[in-house]
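Suppose you are handed a protein chain with no further information: no name, no annotation, nothing but its sequence. What can you learn? This example shows the usual starting point.
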Amino acid sequence: MTNNSIDLITLAIKNFDIASLKELLEDDKTYQDVSKEFFLEKLEKKFNQAKRDDCYSFDDVFFGICGSCNKGCEGMTFLSNSGYYLDLFIESKDGEIADDIYVCNKLTNFRDLDKSMDLGFSFGKDEYYDFKPNQEYTLLQEQYENLFKEVTSIKNIVKVDDFKSWYSNFNYLSNTIRGFGPFECFAYKLYNKAYNLTSQVERVFEISLATEQASEGLIDYQSCSSESEKLIWFFKNQKNHYGSIYYEFPENWKTNSLINYKQDIVKLTLDISGYEYVIDYFITVDKLYDDLIEKYQPLPEHFEASEFGSIEYSLENYLRLHNKHLDVIKHYGRKGY
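A reasonable first move is to predict its three-dimensional structure. Written in structure tokens, the prediction is:
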């Protein structure tokens, strides 16, 4: 098909013209290892993302050198004046006809560009055109779908220990996903979704896993009288920081022991009977951190003195700016902060 030229495809991409790309790209070829239809579907979603911000086309095309998958080859940056950009490599055997198109993840341009909002995208290996699932994959998919269906169907109040007992039905999914490395999880769409879902479920179990730290921590906190002592206490207990972040606490939660757990997928009303002190502990850790961060917010002069006009967000850094508790930071603070 002679109209499948790099120039025409480049112009269509520049103009967010999916209709023309449907005509220009070959039906029987894969692009970025997926079908033409799937590739254009993902590309169109990215175009729509920019359109929602009143960006309806790219304003220019710039060239650069790929430093990753096609190291040393020339790629192109489609760039809008508003900062939206898309780095692509168009593969061609003859320099005229496009044999493949894919996102370039490491493109060094020949000149400095104002690239602020990336419209790049990727596909999981299990989305590839030639992907064939093995037995393990099929079993994981079945367990993931069952877990998703069951956990999103829970409407009744559930006790923490009962929830943990129920989850044991999905041990294969949990143990397998936990055994994968981060790169393997991110390389497959299913594994990525399963990792996200199991993490949201298992976050609830931190309540029952923190009983010893909570009881000791609350006792120790009661003996803290100075800000310095409280800061040391926080650093010793900071592995449980954000323990209360996904929970909502109705007014009477301390009376009926009911709290709400809300993430984007998993939403539960939990009966935390017997674990109220753990939640108190999580809240104490988080509130202390919030109070200290608020108290030692950077002042205008701190921003003025900063080389780039910005300041690293961390409790350790905020305290240094105010020249407070430097001895505590040195001995108990996080390294590198």
